[in-house]
Design brief:
Strand content: 5-15%
Number of domains: 3
Radius of gyration: 22 Å
CATH architecture of the largest domain: 3-Layer(aba) Sandwich
Largest sheet: 6 strands, parallel
Shape: globular
Helix content: 40-55%
CATH class of the largest domain: Alpha Beta
CATH superfamily of the largest domain: HAD superfamily/HAD-like
Number of strands: 9
Distance between the termini: 37 Å
Structural class: alpha/beta
CATH topology of the largest domain: Rossmann fold
């Protein structure tokens, strides 16, 4: 039997309860369903607390409590770490306007989310190609196959932003574990990190392909928690997209927003506890806030 991660007791939701405590309460329930009571469940939880297990409510205080164990940093890749603006010269040559690169990539993100809501699922590269053809039609441009392929190859050869290596190095030096979580397919993100020269900083890379839903679906963030065997509050997403930050926080994770030029938080969503103009600044705040006291 798969044991649940959370128990409800009165108005508090208790987390970080060991599996042996869950096993005991399930054993009691199977043994005599007629005598199982909320009191039995409470007794089980209290026995866990008596054994010295950290028990905390998963409310706003969980942002603080999670630092009892150092958080794992989960990085978005495209635009957060890698500079999609590097494709502007190709768009300038083909469309007469380098700004169309951002229009195209925004459509890639939009239609990845449409694929999650309405289906069917296809990988990010396929959506990128379709969005590029759509953008060309909208601008009255006919793309020759070599030009189209050149842009798509450019997506896996993006350079890192100038602040990225310093920020990643600061976090690694402080002892943080770093992973990536991206809409890109596994082979694509491996190539992206290698080409950008930053793959060495990350212990693992996660792709939405595993759940066949794109960010900001909650299943994507929970996949990382499950794979790393931690609760969602032990993860902090670092991203430059408001929708990514919103999705991670709604899934129970902490978040940090990198406010790169042209990026802003969504005013109707909760504000993350870390916001900075670049990764150096954000890394400095993470070290101050998330290092175990």
């Amino acid at each position: 039997m798969v044991l649940p991660r959370k128990l409800e007791v009165s108005s508090e939701r208790l987390t970080v309860i060991p599996h042996w405590a869950y096993a005991e309460f399930h054993h009691r329930r199977r043994k005599d369903m007629t005598t199982f009571t909320r009191r039995m469940m409470l007794d089980t939880v209290l026995s866990a607390a008596a054994a010295g297990v950290f028990v905390r409510p998963s409310s706003a205080g969980s942002q603080v409590g999670a630092t009892a164990r150092q958080r794992i940093m989960v990085f978005d890749v495209n635009e957060t770490l890698l500079d999609v603006g590097a494709l502007a010269p190709q768009f300038q040559r083909l469309f007469g306007n380098g700004g169309v690169a951002q229009e195209w990539f925004s459509n890639v993100v939009l239609y990845s989310q449409v694929a999650t809501i309405a289906g069917p699922y296809v990988d990010f590269g396929t959506i990128a190609r379709g969005a590029l053809d759509m953008t060309a039609v909208a601008h009255g441009v006919t793309l020759a196959p070599p030009d189209r392929d050149g842009i798509l190859r450019g997506l896996i050869s993006l350079p890192p932003h100038a602040d990225v290596r310093d920020g990643l190095q600061q976090l690694r030096a402080a002892g943080f574990r770093l992973v990536t979580l991206t809409n890109s397919a596994p082979a694509a993100v491996e190539q992206q990190l290698k080409n950008a020269g930053i793959g060495e900083y990350f212990e693992r890379s996660f792709s939405v392909d595993a759940v066949r839903k794109f960010k900001p679906a909650a299943e994507v963030y929970r996949l990382v928690a499950t794979e790393l065997q931690v609760a969602p509050p032990q993860l902090r997403l670092v991203a430059t997209h408001a929708w990514d930050v919103l999705g991670a926080m709604r899934a129970g994770c902490a978040a940090a927003f990198v406010a790169r030029p042209g990026k802003a938080l969504f005013p109707l969503a909760d504000t993350p506890d870390i916001v900075g103009p670049d990764l150096r600044n954000v890394a400095d705040q993470i070290v101050k806030r998330d290092m175990p006291k």
